Amino acid sequence: MFRFMSNKLFLCIICMAVILIAGAYALFISQAPSASVMAECVRNDISKETAYRFGETVSQYETPTIMRLAAVRCEGGIRLVSSTKLREDVSSALIPLLLANSSFREGIYAGTAASALNAGQRARVGKLGLTLEDHARVQRQAVSCLEAEPEAVAFVGQLDLPFAVAVIGIQVNIGDIQIAQGLADILLTKAQKIQAQLPLQECNVTSKQEFLAYANQMQQFAAGKHPWAPGCGITSTSSDLKLVCKGTGK
Question: Which residues sit opposite 234 in a β-bridge?
């Protein structure tokens, strides 16, 4: 014959269990590595795909957070599953660490595009962002290494914006010139800002070669022969440059 414990005793046992569980959880949390240590572990272990997706969230959300399982192989990383605050702290520490990761930066550029665009369109925006970033690097390198006069670099650099507009119009299939120009302006500004935070290479013989190759590509674009924007070129007046794309009416 079974005897049932009183309600008071039963509640007392439940309370003790809750206290023990809460204490164990508090100890579990207190022993977690710091957000910066966990961020370094994530940086060293992150895949290209995860870095790309996190880059997109950096562009799309005011408080970007890494995925819950991003640190599962790091010490204490399982805590990210249940703690939003910890994910936010790790994410904040992770962003500057990942700037050297090209997949992360590509995701940032892709995330600049409107969410209405499909994944393929955003991917093309991401690749364009990396290209504009490389243009900014070559420009910085040429000036820093005294391989070209700043005026010459600025002259070629002014083609980056119309180039981006043309590529967005053709490769991303955005026919509205105002939307294409707005996205191109944001993308170019972001690429230049990010590139300014990255270290330059040491000056060597390739610095001048890279600038000349970049200048030749922009000349090719101006002539309407760049493979990324076929049919789009530049006409110039005494005061400014104008993008003209055949068959668009613009």
Answer: 243
